[in-house]
Each structure stands twice: as C-alpha cells, then as structure tokens.
Amino acid sequence: MARYRDAVCRLCRREGAKLFLKGDRCFKPSCAIEKRGTNPPGQHGAARRKMLAGYGEQLREKQKVKRMYFVLEKQFRNYFEKALRQKGVTGENLLFMLEKRLDNVVYRSGFATSRRQARQLVNHGHIEVNGRKVNIPSFQVKLGDVVTVKDKSIKNPHVDAAWQTSAGRGRPSWITPAGKDLSVSISSLPTRQDIESNINEQLIVELYSK
User: Fold this and answer.
1) Which domain range does residue 88 map to?
2) 8 A C-beta contact, residue 189 and residue 174
C-alpha cells in the first residue's frame, strides 16, 4: 500500500499553514511553523515564496486539503469524481466525504491526536463501528453509527493521552458522546460550518474542471 514516508512537518511548511499532522506537537513551540515560519522547506525556501494566482493558487489549495486529510493523489481524485456525481455543491460534497472517513472521525472524536495516528489505530484493529471491528481508514460512517475504541485498547497509552487532551482540540457538533468513555455516535451529518474555514473548496473544483 502506497503511503507518505517523509517528514510531515515539511508538508505544513510547504503549504504555509498548520495541517496538524504531528498531534500535540502542533500546539507547542516546537512546531516547525512556529520555529521556522511559513517559508517552504529547503535552502532557498524564502526566495521561492511568491504570490500565486490562477492555476498555482488552485494547485496549492488542492495539495493543502489532500495533505490535511492525509490521502494520496489518486484517492483524492476519486473522491472528487464521486462528489461531482452527487447532488448538491461539488466542493462541499468532497469535504463531507473526507470528513466522514473513519480515520477522520477517530481523530475528531478525540481518540487520536492527529489523523495519521488515527489511521494507525484503525489499521491495527483498535476501532469498532456498531460493535464490529473495522480496519479500513477510508470507511464512510453513516448517520447513527457508533464508533468505539475496543475494550482491550482503552488502556492504550496513546489513546488515553489523546482522550485526556481532546477537550483542547474540540469536537464537532455532528459527533456526540455515546454514553461511555471512548465511544461516540454520528448524531448528524457534517455541515460546512463544521469544517475548517480556511479551506476554499471552490479552487479545487476549478482545478479539476479544467
């Protein structure tokens, strides 16, 4: 399975914004953006920073969202094709599918400190949906689904540490506690207000519509 193996802090610096790929470190002074600024990585990063317009601006927005949700190019394009076929606004449909990925739900619920860590928890079988183990990060949750950390994994130090600090990261309104610790339910579907406001999904639609 293809996956990104290089330093993820370079991705944040390349996009000039925090993508929250390193968990709690992103909230500390040791964050690469805090230490080195928003110039692109590399010896001549500062010299390469320039104003973008047209295609360049659209490409950077697509790369930012793709990296934020930590999916690869082919998978991201497939999401766009599905969003295009659905009723409604294509850009919002794209973001809604990304939000409903199981690894994103695990992250947004507070079971993990980053989407990368959430993907690992799912891959290693620590997560259940409606009482059944699901180890597919791209699994799309549905209205009424209950997402839970397995009983044997509740004492996992990474899960416990993430849960203890989850209040500081916040939880969207469409994910609500399901009656016990480390268990949430999908009480509604995500809306545009639940997603980062610094995303301009229309630029992505324009890029893929060329």
Assistant:
1) 9-98+197-208
2) yes
